[in-house]
Amino acid sequence: PAPTPRTFQGYRRPGGRGVGTRNFVVILGTTSRTAGLARQLAARLQPLAKIHPGIDGIVAIAHTEGGGPEMPNNSLELLKTLAGFMVHPNVGAVLALDHGFEPVNNARLQAFMREGGYPLEAVPHRFLTARGAIATELAEGERIVRGWLAEANACRRTAEPVSGLRVALQCGGSDAFSGVSGNPLAGAMVHEVVRHGGAANLCETDEMIGAEAYILRNMRDLATAQALRDRITGFKERLSWHGATAEANPSAGNKLRGLYNIVLKSLGAVHKKDPRTRVEAVIDYADPMRIPGFHFMNSPGNDLEGIAGQVAAGCNLVLFVTGNGSITNFPFVPTLKVTTTTRRHQLLQHEMDINAGRYLDGETMEALTAESFDLLLDTASGRQTKGEHAGHSQVSIWRNWRQTAPSHLATIRSRPVPDGVPVLTQKDAAGTDRRAAAALETAFPVYALEGGRWATERIALVLPTSLCATQIARLAAERLTASGLGREQGISRFVALVHTEGCGFGGEGTRERLQNAYRGYATHPNVAAALLLEHGCEKVPNDAMRRQFEASDIPLARFGWASVQLDGGIDRVLQKVEAWFQENFSALRAPAEIPANLGALTIGLQTCIPYTDATAGILATFARGVVAAGGTVLIAESDPLLANTAHRRLLLGEGALRASLVAGQVADRPGLHVVETETSDWSENLASLGACGAHLFVTLVSEHAREGHPLLPVLQFVEGAQRAGIAPEDVDGFLSGKAEADLALLAQRVAAMAQREYVPAMTKTGLNHFQLTRGLLGVST
Q1: CA-CA distance, 770 to 381, in Å (whole number)?
Q2: Cα(first)–Cα(last) distance of the chain, in Å?
Q3: Confidence class of residue 433 from pLDDT cuts 50, 70 and 90?
Q4: What is the distance between the alpha carbons of residues 65 and 396, in angstroms, rounded to a whole number?
Q5: Using alpha carbons only, how large is the chain's radius of gyration in Å?
Q6: d(CA 199, CA 191)
């Protein structure tokens, strides 16, 4: 035990919730279906935090999980994470949002928490099910949160023993010095926390592989040691179900900087545990830490997914060690970032908190530990970290894995590769009913591009190649749109595609799927200029995309390139991004507009069940009419229209169902294409069809309006029978079941949107969500 007890200024929470290092109001999207709603509500309420100095902020937890129509395999991990977030000591009040129709919803979460003994009543909370109009639900959410602000603002810090700290240990963007300077320093700091009676949490199971002997050298007992070995064995098995091994873990940045395989990476990673510190407990992902001391938590090596589990377990401060300079932050838990070398620390001095490179420069580890431990206590007491000053953060929960045994692997591997040939051609679709064809007749202007392509809008795209670059891309897009840059050249807006991929994944074909998506969006006909923004240590960095473009004979000079880490941090990379677009726009000229019809468009078609036979026939006629006019229609292989034999025949005729494109493969032959997206998630399917070149989407929704796409407009239609359940202002039209009238409505909306005279309902509300599919074999590593 430490001879002299230390304290910090924290928030003592009732009900055994522990001690908070921050005081946040949280808007929690229970699944990805309410991610946009949570973000919108938090943005609307955030200014109120400024007039309540006792509140550190009002933040959204928007994630990617649980949004599909079926129960995900990670439902237990998801529920535990959400439950841990809700009762976290850094949370002063929390509002959970769902629509009520999701397999994982508020009712199930509430029941799970009560059955599990989570102290839910000890935190101001509400479960809000959004069944009405979006505007109405936002207003109701705002009313609820406003009612908590006075109480949350009245919370005060008090002197608390260091035993109230629960510290998460993480590393990301590791280099050859991580195990020499940064990780040992973090381990020594946490050893002091443990000596004071606090707790620590080390995770990333695959980053134990090859270094088990070090960890097993100092364990509480044999049962704890066996529990750790069991978690490693189980993790290897889960990877094997997806055709992957732990060798998928090291990223391009790891390998470039000396960590050539998982063993070398693990030998450094495990030194976040000091040799003097005993492992007291092994817990599963997001399980609460119930005792003091050093814990190991089962998790993937994906940094953000691991951190989410650690926060749910109760960690109220994060120590993040980085060789390359990862800028990771969590919305309501402060992150102290530790660099491994002085050179990298100086390059990113505005993003990094502690320079462990001073040890390499000759300073003693004891002196560095004492100084850094003081900073840790100051941070726990309210001193803002560099990341908090920067004002950005990310959340990613352990993503769903699609396989639960190796039995499907051979079948998946043996599937024929889509050949790019449409399943329905213009010739096949000829002969559409005369009256139906007349209903689909329309004209509108489009931009004529080189190579016989057309665009319906001129957009500038900031394309992040990994989750850690996405928030910086968002900042860049927002600032550039507000500046009005590019207006003279016909640029309507800047867009960033905020996602959670690019790092911490494995599984056969996943990397290629991701690269296809990036290429599809960078070369999308509506994208007039694109800059690729890397973090600097991901699995698909800018260099990988350069090679991808070169292999496809796409000129590299078309694109801008920037790196958060290599260009010197957030402010410098934002300046570089703006400078590139300014230079690019100086030579950019708006293309000519020419008259066109539906044959000029590539349209994504997407549906939800339930729907009637009449509606299926109308959508099939619409799709065949677009193809007959010379256009392209994209539909996901998992779409309900293709699951029903009769409805599939209406759409495809007598042709056999087969995938003609992989997700993200650009449709360079007109016709109807079935896209092998390998997902049933609404947003993931939109993202895949968009990467294949869709100008816009025509969708049929049910139960509730769905979130839109940040780059491409999404038209949402509803059957008339559901008028009572979905607000008219949240969708773009109701279908009557009368073919001619409904076809005319679809054509009218598409034409008005294509010529920028109509704004889809979800675009007006600002609710969108973007997520890339990992496919059937994607798995976190």
Answers
A1: 36
A2: 36
A3: confident
A4: 9
A5: 26
A6: 9
- The 3 state secondary structure assigned to 208-231 is HCCCHHHHHCCECCHHHHHHHHHH
What distance in Å separates the CA atoms of residue 31 and residue 103, rounded to the nearest whole number? 9
Residue 278 has what DSSP assignment? P
Q: Are 675 and 662 in contact (CB under 8 A)?
A: yes
Query: Tokens for 417?
Result: 């590769």
Q: List the alpha helices (DSSP H) in 292-341.
A: 303-312
pTM value > 0.85: yes
The token pair that represents 748 in the structure block: 């009218």
**Mean pLDDT, to the nearest integer, of 507-514?**
91
Query: Could you tell me where the beta strands, DSSP code E, fall in 658-695?
Result: 661-662, 671-676
Supply 445's token pair: 């202007």
Nearest to residue 301, comparing CAs of 464, 174, 392? Answer: 174
Q: What angle do CA 480, 465, 340 make, to 5 degrees?
A: 105
Chain segment 52-95, per-residue pLDDT in tens: 999 999 999 999 999 999 999 999 999 999 999 999 999 999 99
Quote the tokens at residue 49.
């935090």
Q: Measured at the alpha carbon of residue 271, what is the angle toward residues 270 and 272, in degrees to the nearest 5? A: 90
Dump pLDDT digits (tens) for 93-133: 999 999 999 999 999 999 999 999 999 999 999 999 999 99
- Distance between CA atoms of 501 and 646, rounded to whole angstroms? 37
CA–CA gap between residue 653 and residue 646 (Å, rounded): 10
E strand map for 612-735: 632-636, 661-662, 671-676, 696-700, 714-719, 734-735
pLDDT tens column, 459-493: 999 999 999 999 999 999 999 999 999 999 999 99
Q: Comparing C-alpha atoms, which of 532, 100, 310 is closest to residue 318?
A: 310
Q: What is the distance between the alpha carbons of residues 693 and 498, in angstroms, rounded to a whole number?
A: 18
Task: Evaluate if residue 248 carries a pLDDT over 90.
Answer: no
